[in-house]
């Protein structure tokens, strides 16, 4: 359960400002005339009290209100360069930012939900008692901005006015964080009050990087106070840890919709993209995938790209499913981004005219960025997040240092991508989503695409996402579970989130045509796991377009499929022209390998999921019913055909 405004508001306790009058007095005293004038446009009392408390705690030397005007945004860009948080690269509009070597990705072990005494949280997340978090904020955040400027921005997570959009405040001493916020979120300074009133809430995010020294990173904390919808972040700069408008506020939204918007809204770790079908019709997809499993690439394969990371969905009055991207930019992994797989993104990264903040890549002597897998000639030397780099460099443990960190990123506007559907993206009515996909990294079990026959089966596909284990991951079947690819961002009990999924997708509010098709996708099957003499992946990046195109036809009833215990699979004859359209041979033999059912493997997978979910309290019965039915039907198939069931024995 989520109880809002429960327990002490840490910001108000440590800042000690409880009334509007005291807040206003402090603002009067601490802001210069220009910034006071700007802030005077914000009337929301809670927001002013929150801001005053942040000032009171962090004690900055100056305060900058970012209205989102071109002058204000330019000031932030310039200040980031002046502070050394970013440096100009050769190409106009490109800059490089480095995070400390210790802070190259989400600091999972230093990320906590703040909880009240006796509250039950997700079994997959760390939590800290409110009193302990309060002590931390008092000890480490008091005076943390003493010689720094505090920057404050007002953003909307989604197009202003959309049913599922929410306003948020970002407060930080890092110009890089505010610069990133400007590229990734819609500045809603002028509409903030209205949006806070309309939605009845706003999120507050407070970040301070401190002295930005490696020795402080162990003290770094990312706290999410779910009762007060406030985040705290210290001693780090990596955007996933600091720009908490992103995953910090995503967590709040997941929490909020799970408990307060059941059967109305969902908040998912999903891309949104559209595909042009026969006759020019546009069909929109929203799809989940764990971090680093090709979500950005899949999204950009569409003809009408909207977003690559997050989706907030609701059932509209007309019974259709609608989705908005709470973001307007991309914070994308650059490793393996190249002309062949990601032509539109490459145009932005290598062409002219796009503002890009690079992070943690190699910069050569000509101030040109390089990264692993870019498919270009790589320099022999340069500098990266570890300082000077040369080919063959080893770290103190003797490991070869790659030219760029695996989690190196590029930050840019989504609208810079050539196939971005800017108009639909900005429409408060959202994109009409017809197809939901769930994908992971599964080398040996599930076929490239399969469609749920019922909403319950669809929810179970989401619950059953897995990601291939690395050598360090444990687990009987060598895979890690990644429910909905959203588990790291579910604050409450997984069972509650799952129950909300069943209610949403079974809702009678959907019209017949509005209820989405739900499907699984897997591009990671290998030859080695399919009795083949070949090596490596059975498919390639560009096949994604064929799978999405088949789903597009299926969703409109233009093609049918083969009914199996795991769902509906495509027929060879329907796929063949779709591969032709992407100029690829698609022999029947490849199809046969991809779509044969490896019954023992699927049953093992079901058993693994059942065992794991049986350990959680209150998991909805529907999940176990679907697993049981699938297992029974698969067992019958095995008796009839043996452990490998050829697809043509099913058609
Ligand atoms: C992810 O890791 O899923 C990301 C980047 O999208 S982060 O902001 O770190 O979450
Ligand atoms: Mn993500």
Structural description of this entry:
With 651 residues, the protein is of the alpha+beta class. It folds into three domains: 10-87 and 110-260, Phosphoenolpyruvate Carboxykinase, domain 1 (3-Layer(aba) Sandwich); 265-328 and 426-649, Phosphoenolpyruvate Carboxykinase, domain 3 (Alpha-Beta Complex), CATH 3.90.228.20; 331-415, Phosphoenolpyruvate Carboxykinase, domain 2, CATH 2.170.8. Helices cover 32% and strands 22% of the residues. The chain is built from 20 helices and 33 strands. Strands 1, 4, 5, 6, 7, 8, 9, 10 and 11 form a nine-stranded mixed beta sheet that branches. Strands 12, 13, 14, 15, 16, 17, 25, 26 and 29 form a nine-stranded mixed beta sheet that branches. It has a five-stranded mixed beta sheet with strand order 2-3-19-24-18, with helices on one face. α14 runs antiparallel to α15 (494-505). The longest helix is centred in the last third of the chain and has 21 residues, at 621-641. The chain is globular and about 80 Å long. The model is unreliable at 470-476 (pLDDT under 50). Residues 269, 291, 309 line the site of manganese (II) ion. Sulfopyruvate binds at residues 106, 239-240, 246-247, 291, 309, 331.
Attribute tags:
about 650 residues; alpha+beta; Phosphoenolpyruvate Carboxykinase, domain 1; Phosphoenolpyruvate Carboxykinase, domain 3; Phosphoenolpyruvate Carboxykinase, domain 2; 3 domains; 9-stranded mixed beta sheet; 33 strands; about 20% strand; globular; binds sulfopyruvate; binds manganese (II) ion
